[in-house]
Design goal:
about 60% helix, mainly alpha, 2 domains, about 0% strand
Length: about 120
């Protein structure tokens, strides 16, 4: 049995995950997926759990308590990118706004200031 057949057998038997197989082969998971698709294997779609975006006050409170988007992401069980997207859509100013253009920064800061009860 050659390596190609062994790899296909591991995938079909689900004896190892794609990540584990890629590690054995010393290639990336993306490269392994490319190979498997080129060999005619149909890979199962990854299922993702949809997490409901918290309301603005909850998100703001979590951000203030946890000090970073990374820590908020851990608490919520989502990626940092998801937290950043939530914060932008809720117009919560982030401590690091370097990747935003000036118009986005201005809009977020103005919205935030207008929501405060001064």
């Amino acid at each position: 049995m050659d390596n190609k057949e062994k790899i296909i057998q591991m995938v079909n038997n689900k004896s190892k995950t794609l990540k584990e197989i890629a590690g054995i082969l010393k290639i990336t998971e993306k490269q392994l997926n490319f190979l498997l698709i080129s060999w005619g294997l149909v890979l199962p779609k990854k299922t993702r759990i949809k997490v409901q975006m918290p309301d603005r006050d909850t998100l703001l409170r979590l951000y203030e308590q946890n000090k970073s988007t990374g820590e908020v992401a851990k608490v919520m069980g989502v990626s940092i990118g998801t937290v950043i997207r939530w914060m932008r859509s809720s117009k919560i100013p982030m401590r690091r706004m370097a990747k935003m253009n000036d118009e986005e920064k201005k809009d977020i800061l103005e919205y935030h200031i207008n929501t405060l009860k001064i």
